[in-house]
Design goal:
single chain, alpha+beta, six-stranded antiparallel beta sheet, 6 strands
């Protein structure tokens, strides 16, 4: 599906118990199954950008990131705490609003998101082999096997693997028994892609301020009113006969 396709124009998302956002409704149900369909929030996307940063020294190309995701801007917050988000046609690298990122998984094996995962997997392994003192070079197959094992574990536990968790697992992968010395890690370039980094903020705090008072808060208000009534009865003298 082309980026300009009008079929994918909006979706609704809910915050799960795992503190990840999941799509509950979408404008293009023919091509998208909402069962287990995660969406990446602004805070998570910034985390991805930060983790990608060292890979630029090993050949990371922005075009993989740009093609892999659809950007959705926040439109409104519903009373049930779901959010309505609207598709923006801007490049995800140029979007100036807070946005949610939906991976392009129409073709899970050969699509843009699959290409993105393959790109960062190869570069992560390239970086590890350059940074770690290993007798035998680490392979992409080892990384992929580790990721599959974790995903299979989540599946057996009845949990869906969120896309943020999948990407983060790749970008933070280190073979068992090794660690990366921060002093030897590539320095972060604060100026690279600065507009994107500057515009992304933590959406979860904003939502907490905007979402209407829930029933728990109402119960607290009722308890305060009852306490006030009790105090009134204690301090008010009965009328004289």
């Amino acid at each position: 599906m082309a980026k300009s396709s009008p079929n994918l124009s909006w979706c609704k998302a809910r915050l799960g118990n795992d503190m990840n956002w999941w799509v509950s409704e979408i404008s293009d149900p023919i091509h998208w199954d909402t069962e287990g369909l995660g969406i990446i929030d602004p805070k998570q996307f910034q985390c991805i950008i930060d983790l990608i940063e060292p890979l630029y020294d090993y050949g990371f190309l922005n075009e993989y990131l740009d093609k892999a995701f659809y950007a959705f801007a926040i439109e409104k917050i519903e009373p049930d705490k779901t959010i309505q988000i609207k598709r923006t046609q801007e490049s995800i690298l140029e979007c100036e609003e807070q946005f949610f990122a939906l991976p392009d998984i129409i073709d899970e094996e050969k699509g843009p998101y699959a290409d993105f995962l393959d790109h960062i997997s190869k570069l992560r392994i390239k970086m590890l082999n350059a940074s770690l003192d290993v007798a035998q070079k680490i392979s992409v197959d080892e990384l992929e096997e580790s990721i599959r094992e974790e995903q299979n574990k989540e599946y057996m536990e009845g949990r869906n693997t969120h896309y943020f968790s999948e990407i983060k697992a790749i970008l933070e992968y280190i073979p068992e028994g090794f660690e990366i010395d921060n002093e030897d890690a590539p320095e972060k370039n604060e100026d690279r892609d600065a507009p994107l980094l500057d515009e992304i903020s933590d959406i979860n705090e904003d939502l907490e301020e905007d979402i209407e008072t829930d029933d728990t808060m109402k119960w607290e208000e009722e308890e305060e009113e009852d306490a006030s009534d009790d105090n009134y009865g204690e301090t008010t003298s009965p009328p004289e006969e």
